[in-house]
Amino acid sequence: MRPPIASLVVLLLVVAALTVIGLDGVHVGQVPQAVLSDEQQIAADTALSVRTTIDVEASTLRRTAAVYPATSTSATTALKALTPGRKTILGSALLDPHTGRLLATGGKPVPLAGGDVKAASGHGRIRPWLVTSGGVRQLLYFARVVLSAQQEDANQDQYQASSRTERQWLLVVSEALPALRTYGDGRVAAVLDASGAVLATTARGTASPAAADSGLPAAAARAATASGRGADAAGSLLGTTTGSVRTVAGWAQVASTTGPGDTDGLGLVLLTSRTVPVTTSTADYARFALEAAGALAGVSLLLGLALHFLVQRPLLRLYLSAGRLSRGATEDEPTALEGLYRPVPVHGYGELARIGRALESLRRQLLGQSGPEEFPARRGPGYRALAVAGLLVVACWAVPMIFLLNRADATTAVPAPVLAAHQARTELAANRIRQSLDQSYTDLSDVAAGLPGLSRAAQTRVLRHTLADHKQYRSLYLLGRSGGITLRVGEVPLRTLLHVPDGGGITTVNTSGRIPAIAAYAQVRAVRGKAPAAGVVLFGEIDVKALNSILPRPKLGSVWVTDGHDRVLAASVGYRAFQSLPDSGLTRLVRAAQGAPGTAGTSNSAVLRTSSGPSVDAAAPLAQSGPTARLGWHVVAAEPAAALQIPAVQAEQRTMLAGLLGLAVGAACLGWLHVVVIRPLRAVAVLVERLAAGDRRTVLHPVNHDEVGSVTRSLELIRQALAERDRAARSGHATRPSRGPRATTLQR
């Protein structure tokens, strides 16, 4: 009996303490933590875009060099073939990696004085270098070009290691730093070196001069250096306060996420910053926490005292009275017999009062003062009603905490900078998808340009090599003029739309099924004077898993890619192909982001109220230009506001949690009390009333080893004594041998 009552009081006091701790931890500062976290994530997303651009440039150059046949021994001719009109290239050069001698140059001079090319070229893949030329920072990309003579010797397996080095060229290309793109009006983005010097910068919209805080680059560089190289570290910074606005910044290392990569060793840091209004909220959650905790402490003490005086003490007295009667009925000791002459006090109400009245009747029957007594069938409320009343008292505290108090307004709880940052991150997610699809189309176009004039066997080898080198493709195939597949490598195509498109780009080739089929396609030009190509259009079906893996980002929530009919093509969460968005509000948001026919549209965002609380949602068109612009696709992101560090939402969440904990504790402890005390008491009350009414046949079996079980055992002893007395009375004998005057009086 004592454990459930004590547990109820102690656990409710613990919930009260947790309420104070939880709500006191909600701080309303000048800049909400959610704003700082979002700026950090924007910096990390932008750094990822820069990293991807550098990795793609480096891998493209190495791939170009790897497939170059090197049939000519002229370095100048080879250099022109290796760099055919790439607009991003500032200068190029071919070197002898064994001696470091310059063999051919193109464009602007390549600044090689800052490093030892000969030493670096002897250790596998050469990572890009960050160099200075004319006061401008540039990136150098490297690739090895294997000469045909070496290939012939390799087939014969007769060449030496020294000749292997002599029969390679080293291709070096200089390019400017990747062009920065920043999202969100008023945001400034900059690329820094390890010392904090600004290498490139850009701004979106009308950026405030305060956003370009002069102390932030050095602080970001120091923070990145302290985190170590290649750790993909990121963080946030607070800048100066100007009037009613303050500068917030995020920084992130431009490094590889999967170990050594092309960006490791560059020491680049990406810094983003913008100004946000200073919060002037006066919400005092600490005072509310103390008031709520005090109320719950009062409720717990009230319930504890009520259960102590109404249940615990009466039951203990009843337990003692039942034991006294059982000893008087079964023992011949004078002290035991004296207990039969003391009336049974009737304490409490309900079941305990019923048991007490029945015990008093049994006492009189044992003394021979009365016979069996019937008890009325109509009874008042019992202890079950007390448990329900206790739960209602707890609910009076918990229900307002869950449904009424500290409720965040969906329209004002989320600060405007948080909503703007979520929209910017959605645009960054769209940019990542666009980069991936554009690169797939570019790679496929390069392959299609090399197919004309090749035999079918040679085309098959090229496609197989491309499939092995580009993991995003699941299938590559050539279409004939009639739309049939004339050549295929990889998995079985998913396409159900049979058509031969013009030009090139990205498209979907099915409209139903379990897997959306997204494909890049490019024309295969015919060569005059040669046999016609095996196909006229090259298709590369893109594995949708490759797109799904791009979408997830920390604190961005669920992300979907939808087609022009608002059907899901890819997502960061589980989905069915071509399903609608999971919420009608998201669909309306996408349609609001659609522009006029023929235009890409603009991104937008909103705070939507869902069944689980406010949700920060945004939709952005996939691309404004390029091969994916005319698709009409969108990227949609939805993040529950509860996952963001917004004071109003945190207060609502923790208030609801305190209410749920209090209600759960009350229900559990009172349910425990009902199971171990109240329900057994109800059963005992029925049995003892039957016993007092003359039922001597029903055996009373104690079920629990507690106070109620002891009362049941005592009642069973009383039943046996009464049954023995009744049998003796029928046979004309005394119930037991008499010892002393008290026993003689009992027999009489």
Brief characterization of the structure:
This protein is an alpha+beta fold.
Protein described:
The protein has 748 residues and is of the alpha+beta class. 44% of the residues lie in helices and 18% in strands. It has 18 helices and 20 strands. A 5-stranded antiparallel β-sheet has the order 2-1-5-4-3. A 5-stranded antiparallel β-sheet has the order 7-6-10-9-8. The protein has a 5-stranded antiparallel β-sheet with strand order 12-11-15-14-13. The C terminus is likely disordered.
The value of Rg in angstroms is 42 Å
Distance between the amino and carboxyl termini: 40 Å
Number of helical elements: 18
Kindly name the structural category.
Answer: alpha+beta
Secondary structure elements and their pairing?
Layout: H1 2-24, H2 33-67, H3 75-82, E1 89-95, E2 102-107, H4 117-120, E3 129-133, E4 136-146, H5 148-156, H6 161-166, E5 168-176, E6 188-192, E7 198-203, H7 216-227, E8 234-242, E9 245-253, E10 269-277, H8 285-330, H9 334-338, H10 350-366, H11 383-403, H12 416-450, H13 456-469, E11 473-479, E12 485-490, E13 505-508, E14 518-523, E15 537-542, H14 544-550, E16 558-562, E17 568-571, H15 584-593, E18 604-610, E19 613-621, E20 634-640, H16 647-692, H17 707-731, H18 740-747
Antiparallel strand pairs: 1-2, 1-5, 3-4, 4-5, 6-7, 6-10, 8-9, 9-10, 11-12, 11-15, 13-14, 14-15, 16-17, 16-20, 18-19, 19-20
Helix pairs in contact: 1-8, 1-16, 2-12, 8-10, 8-11, 8-17, 10-16, 11-16, 16-17
